[in-house]
Write a structure and sequence with these properties.
Elements: H1 3-11, H2 39-43, E1 47-48, E2 51-52, H3 70-76, E3 87-89, H4 94-107, E4 123-128, H5 132-140, E5 144-149, H6 152-156, H7 160-170, E6 174-179, H8 193-201, E7 210-214, H9 232-238, E8 245-250, E9 262-265, H10 268-281, H11 287-299, H12 303-330, H13 334-337, E10 342-343, E11 352-355, H14 361-370, E12 392-395, H15 402-425
Parallel strand pairs: 4-5, 4-6, 6-7, 7-8
Antiparallel strand pairs: 1-2, 3-9, 8-9, 10-11, 11-12
Amino acid sequence: MNPRERLEELKKKSLTLNMTRGQPGHNQRHVIPRDFYPAALHELGLKIDGIDITNYPVGSPDLKAIQGLPSLRKILAPMVDLDPDLICVNIHESMKLMADYLYRGFVHGVGKDAPPWERGKTKFIVFVPGYDRHFAMLERFGIEMIPVKLTRQNVSDNSFMDRVEELVAGDPQIVGLLGVFRYSNPTGFTFSDAAIKRMAEMKTACPHFRVIHDDAYCVHAFRGKRAEQLSIVTASKEAGNPERGVVFSSLSKIIAAGGTIAFMGANEEYLEFFRSILKIEQITPDKPKQAEIFYFLNNYPGGLNGLMQAHAEELRPRFDAVERVLQEELGESELVKSGKVSWETPDGGYFVSVDVVPGTSPRVIEICKDAGVAFTAASATYPKGMDTEKRNIRLAPSLPEVEEVELATRVFALAVQVAADESNNS
């Protein structure tokens, strides 16, 4: 038979062989010791959702597969109130995912038709008091921050949005907004659905304005039920601005800091654009890690909800201790009655926000340090530390034992009084 005839004979076999990519063969797995993979992965047969978790995608990769294992996305998506198809599970920290989003904004733009941002001509709205790591990240990218003050009253009546709407309508260089909208850091505020809708619907001078929700504490309720909230992703779609809203979260404060996974949520209009970039930057996500996390959450008593209830049982006594000591030491004081000192009592999140006598926050921190108690630096809750009133201090009671939280808070409350007395006598 000549080559053509031989080829025709082979075609009759209806072959479906694939030699497109340099993937390790299945027989190569035996060179890896069995105990290299955790027992949980062997119980899954090193496969999940029909996907080999030890290898690259077979043939031409399905672009949606890069969004993460479907079974894990089904568990994680309710955390941010989205459909599993609208989240992308990726690297280990949400801060890194957000930094990558900002980086891509300067290189690729933040959507198919959005031009890249220009360094020195890019501004973001941030909320104060706010998250110091957000501020550091934006500053590192050369993004100018426009602070909008949050108070118990203006969050309650949504009037903080008046200022946001005024700012974005008048300046095309304001390209985005970044904040924690649920159990905010450090105040513990949760924005209403009405406020979320206003963010999604508002008229902006920048045609490709983006709202970035760092939903870091989305399931971290420790008093009562979890705060329900309309997703900025859903609200943006309904408002006719489908690419506007994005949300980020992670399991860092749930399973292991920096050792688990993070994820982003967005509408399909943005995810299509995102996948087109990600397929160049990454061949496959960390499927073994994702499968291990799926196995853990799927087998934990009560699932993710059961795990968060266990966390709440640990967190609640610590936050109760802060509230109890502040009330004991300051509750009936003239400082509180006059409004010079106040604090928030959160139902979730990781922090307590305290406003001390104006001008005294650095001295309060100094007095505490002299007594052997460390708190977040004064004014850290403002961009570049520019708390002009020098009032706000963030307390983080989650790490110490309850007795230590009580002692530290008592030192703090006494320092507030001493600093106030010094201020009056200066």
